[in-house]
Amino acid sequence: MSLLARVTIVDENGRVILDEYVKPSYVITDYRSCYSGIKKSDLENGSDFSIVRNKVANLINGCILVGHSLHFDLDALKLSHPDSNCRDLAKYEPFTRTNGGQPVALKTLARLYLGRTIQDGVHNSAEDAKACMDLYRTRRYNW
């Protein structure tokens, strides 16, 4: 089972407006710290899920939501968002066209279209969020 551990939201300019760890509701047996970068102490000092969920719901209400495989994030937060206001890079046809219609990893999209290396070592949700926004900004007028 996977649990929500961290939420990061950036604005249209890539500035972090929310970055919070989430206190786990179950016992964690493997933090996958070598990949996630998340330690037990990060989550012990995290916020309650309901508080983080409400903050996210308030921030994204009425906004265009940009991300990669957004359904995973929304499912983890137990939220929904209108499809018309979602810009999912994993479903964007000009990106998937290069991969036989399948989603292309965010790491690959950042390297190909931004010339940027991300997810090199531990995962950083702020780095991912900024890369998503920068990718969207390169294509927003053609979306």
Features:
two-stranded antiparallel ribbon; 7 helices; 143 residues; two-stranded parallel ribbon; alpha+beta; globular
Residue stretches low in confidence (pLDDT < 50, at least 5 long) are none
What share of residues is helical?
Answer: 25-40%
Q: Give the overall pLDDT as a whole number.
A: 94
Question: Roughly how many Å apart are the termini?
Answer: 34 Å
Q: Helix/strand/pairing class, anyone?
A: alpha+beta
Helical run tally: 7
Total strands: 4
Secondary structure: elements and pairs:
Layout: E1 6-10, E2 16-21, H1 33-36, H2 40-44, H3 49-60, E3 65-67, H4 70-77, E4 86-88, H5 93-96, H6 106-114, H7 125-139
Parallel strand pairs: 3-4
Antiparallel strand pairs: 1-2
Give your account of this protein's structure.
With 143 residues, the chain is of the alpha+beta class. Helix content is 40%, strand content 12%. A two-stranded antiparallel ribbon has the order 1-2. It has a two-stranded parallel sheet with strand order 3-4. Helix 4 links the parallel strand 3 and strand 4 (86-88). The chain is globular and about 40 Å long.
